[in-house]
Amino acid sequence: MARERILGIDASRTTLAQPTGVERYARAVVRALIPLAEAEGVRLRLYFRDPPPPGLFPRSPWVEHRILPFPRLWTHLRLSGEMLRHPPAALFVPAHVIPLYHPPSAVTVHDLGYRYFPRTHPLFQRLYLDLSTRWSATVARVVFADSQATMMDLVRFYRIRPEKIVVAYPGYDPPPIPTDPEPILRRFGIQRPYVISVGTIHPRKNFSLILRIIARRMAGGWAGQVVIVGRPGWPDPVFERLRRDPIWSGRLILTGYVDDESRGALLSQAEAFLLPSLYEGFGFPVLEAQACGVPVLCTPNGSLREVAGEGALLLPPDDPDPWVEALDRLARDPGFRAELIARGHANRKRFSWEACARTIWGSLREWLGPP
């Protein structure tokens, strides 16, 4: 008797109350896979550690939720046990690690930044990331990579066979822009003009370069603010030292984590979006900024050259002068600014969750057997 066509998905990372890039990816990919599975008569079995909030995923007779509460080592103990007792035909892990016991499995690898900047991660976290990524990429039948850069890193660091890796560019969700953004700006004490960046405060985000850039603009007479949207992460001593300078009193706004509407409001009103990262696995904020009609300036590091395309100015991560010159030109040349914004809009249309899901589904469906 043929095994029922069931695709299991580790959805444990979709229930976080404050999702960031990887968690948003998991939510969006699962949503986009549901109609593809329905169309081919494949059941999706979603595994959760915590009960999902109502409406997280569309209701469908083809989608089953299995809630598997467990305090620690959920993946390798509880999910492994479920795979042993009630195995699906295949398992997809979009945002975590493949369990020790597993059916034919696929995993998405988002980021190998810890290999480039090991000192920016606590020792235990770095060892866990290294071991879990190596394990998942080795035992998976297919590894989905967010970018060509991540694919090459998998080959370089873990000797994964290139033919086993499929690049599936993520999509993005344009943050909603409120009709009246003023109340949101006032809530954070933000006044125009300002430049903005989005991301967890972490040394590899290189936010200290933004302070060096804007300090030079301020010395030249620019009277604006720097807005950084994101929760605190690993301490960045250089950024912390620079921001203690009195010149940043009232000029540097750290909003912490914000909801989608607030992020859309803050992006849409900015003079420019800056992302001077030393490494990015993908770089969702670049596409969000382009969708909000903001000129984007970023480094070419990691996947950013692929993601930003022709819709951003690519600048070095260690020299503030080209950034100052680019911002000054954007301020004095409306045509140049409009052209960069238009190129950003054209670029972000290359990415969609539907296209990402179709690429992933094309690999997974081969293991599920005929209808």
TrEMBL record:
EC assignment: 2.4.1.291
Top-level class of the enzyme under EC nomenclature: transferase
Keyword Hydrolase in annotation: no
One GO term (biological process): lipopolysaccharide biosynthetic process
Highest taxon above the source species: Bacteria
Keyword match Zinc: no
A Pfam family recorded for this sequence: Glyco_trans_1_4
GO molecular function annotation: glycosyltransferase activity
Keywords from the UniProt entry: Glycosyltransferase, Transferase
UniProt protein name: N-acetylgalactosamine-N, N'-diacetylbacillosaminyl-diphospho-undecaprenol 4-alpha-N-acetylgalactosaminyltransferase
